[in-house]
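Transmembrane protein structure dump, as promised
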Amino acid sequence: MSVGAGILLLFLVAFVAANLPWLTERVFFVLRPPAHGKREWIRLLEWAVLYVLVGLIGRGLEYQLTGQIQPQDWEFYVTTLCLFVVFALPGFIYRHDLRRHLRKRR
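structure tokens r here:
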């Protein structure tokens, strides 16, 4: 796999992972939600865990493609966190705004 293909794969995985907590009702994608539904803090916790997992996938992919892992400062992690927030926007909008409008149309 080339470096460019690895980067595209990582972006795709990050985009899907950032949206998953808002698109499913199962807690951590396995457990059934409580009777009152999945709370927002659980969605944020899932989202944070997925951010860490995508970061680990990225490190593993970097090591596989280049043979080394570059040291990063805090600025890198803040930038990737902001990018993960932007990636999560479609799922968040669907969960909190668009879904309600689509239900009204039915």
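The two ends are 46 Å apart (CA to CA).
lmk if u need the other ones
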